[in-house]
């Protein structure tokens, strides 16, 4: 009998029935093939040696984007600095490099991923690498490779090494035939952009691995995020970040969406807290593995009105980008996140007025610091 199959049978006897109530009956075929992924059974022996009460040892992929550094800061406060590794394929700025640990990790390189997970005894993986909606539509082939092939690598490494895996999805996982106001967790999902298609794929594959192989997959459908100290990576909701920079620098802003375009949005601190909370939630409290989360819903016009309260000379004009507008017009206007609120107690802290005050205060104090130096 081939060694891999023998190992698999022994591991199957040791594992028994996982928490989800489904049997890990047979390994995915690729683990028994000639690919580097054939070590699943023996990897499970190793993970069984670690204490369940250990603090998680975390890897964040795509960590130099809008969300990753903030997540690393939050997790480091919670679990300790050395327990959280930030990774990306880009060169980190000085302050991130020196705050360590930072390493190079390309999610398209499976061996590189496995080496990092093994060498650092990773137990939790936050998979943030992606091409966002507008950038993805401009480069479909790369978006398909990073968002779909890259995800397969992540799922396999997580399944082989028994990791708890967080993969963000998005409002972009819905399309023009979905109910848009509000959009529930379970409804028609027929997005027409590669970004959305790849995210529906991620949701379904993650859930499949959960039910089929017992992978502890957790996924939140994020709305658009507003952050003060990090730049977005080419999405449709980016206007809601750029508006603050331009309002303070020039007193005016040219918006690439129509004034009445309503989208679900959230302040970054709420996003990062939700992400940690769903990862810490007891498995039995999760009636689903993919949840909508939301905080507020506004249009460029609503946001401009709120900015005007702080910057009275502020002016907004429109120069609509047809690709971004088409994407936004197919997305939810309002997100129903009642299941997240019911199951694991999700509650947002920031509504529109608090969000605008927070971001403007951040930039205001930044400017004063810059002037003083
Ligand atoms: N920012 C938002 O408003 C928002 C909303 C919904 C969902 N999300 C999701 O959250 C996650 C993080 O979003 P973000 O805004 O930080 O994205 P971002 O575009 O700012 O950053 C993505 C990062 O992925 C990295 N990356 C690209 N190819 C890679 C590869 N081959 N290997 C490793 N890294 C690679 C990039 O260098 C970049 O730093 C994404 O999955 C995104 O879809 C974000
Ligand atoms: C909403 C989201 O996934 C991202 N901010 C984008 O616009 O592409």
Automatic annotation (TrEMBL):
Coiled-coil portions: none
UniProt function note: Catalyzes the NAD(+)-dependent oxidation of L-threonine to 2-amino-3-ketobutyrate, mediating L-threonine catabolism.
Protein origin, superkingdom: Eukaryota
Enzyme Commission designation: 1.1.1.103
Species this protein is from: Odobenus rosmarus divergens
Molecular-function annotations in GO: L-threonine 3-dehydrogenase activity
Name the UniProt record assigns to this protein: L-threonine 3-dehydrogenase, mitochondrial
GO terms (BP aspect): L-threonine catabolic process
Pathway(s) the chain acts in: Amino-acid degradation; L-threonine degradation via oxydo-reductase pathway; glycine from L-threonine: step 1/2
Substrates-to-products reaction catalysed: L-threonine + NAD(+) = (2S)-2-amino-3-oxobutanoate + NADH + H(+)
Top-level taxonomy: Eukaryota, Metazoa, Chordata, Craniata, Vertebrata
Residue span, NAD-dependent epimerase/dehydratase domain: 58-293
Protein family (similarity comment): Belongs to the NAD(P)-dependent epimerase/dehydratase family.
One Pfam assignment: Epimerase
């Amino acid at each position: 009998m081939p060694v891999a199959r023998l190992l698999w049978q022994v591991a199957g006897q040791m594992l028994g029935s996982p928490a989800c109530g489904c049997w890990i009956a047979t390994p995915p075929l690729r683990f028994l093939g000639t690919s580097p992924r054939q070590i699943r059974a023996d990897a499970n022996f190793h993970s069984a040696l670690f204490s369940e009460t250990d603090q998680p040892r975390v890897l964040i992929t795509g960590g130099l984007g809008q969300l990753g550094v903030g997540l690393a800061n939050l997790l480091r406060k919670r679990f300790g600095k050395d327990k959280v590794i930030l990774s990306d394929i880009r060169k980190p700025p000085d302050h991130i490099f020196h705050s360590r640990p930072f390493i190079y990790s390309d999610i398209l390189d499976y061996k590189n991923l496995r080496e990092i997970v093994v060498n650092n005894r990773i137990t939790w993986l936050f998979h943030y690498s992606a091409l966002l909606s507008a950038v993805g539509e401009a480069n479909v082939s790369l978006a398909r490779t990073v968002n779909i092939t890259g995800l397969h690598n992540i799922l396999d490494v997580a399944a082989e090494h028994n990791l708890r895996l967080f993969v963000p999805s998005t409002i972009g996982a819905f399309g023009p035939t979905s109910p848009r106001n509000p959009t529930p967790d379970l409804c028609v999902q027929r997005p027409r952009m590669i970004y959305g298609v790849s995210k529906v794929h991620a949701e379904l594959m993650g859930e499949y691995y959960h039910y089929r192989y017992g992978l502890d997959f957790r996924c939140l459908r994020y709305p658009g995020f507003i952050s003060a100290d990090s730049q977005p990576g080419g999405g449709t909701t980016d206007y809601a970040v750029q508006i603050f920079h331009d309002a303070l620098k020039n007193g005016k802003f040219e918006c690439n969406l129509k004034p009445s375009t309503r989208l679900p949005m959230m302040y970054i601190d709420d996003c990062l807290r939700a992400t940690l909370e769903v990862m810490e939630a007891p498995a039995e409290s999760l009636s689903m593995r993919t949840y909508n989360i939301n905080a507020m819903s506004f249009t460029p016009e609503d946001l401009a009105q709120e900015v005007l309260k702080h910057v009275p000379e502020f002016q907004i004009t429109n120069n609509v980008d047809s690709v971004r507008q088409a994407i936004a017009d197919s997305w939810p206007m309002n997100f129903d996140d009642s299941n997240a609120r019911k199951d694991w107690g999700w509650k947002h802290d920031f509504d529109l007025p608090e969000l605008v005050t927070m971001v403007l205060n951040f930039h205001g104090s930044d400017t004063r610091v810059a002037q003083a130096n």
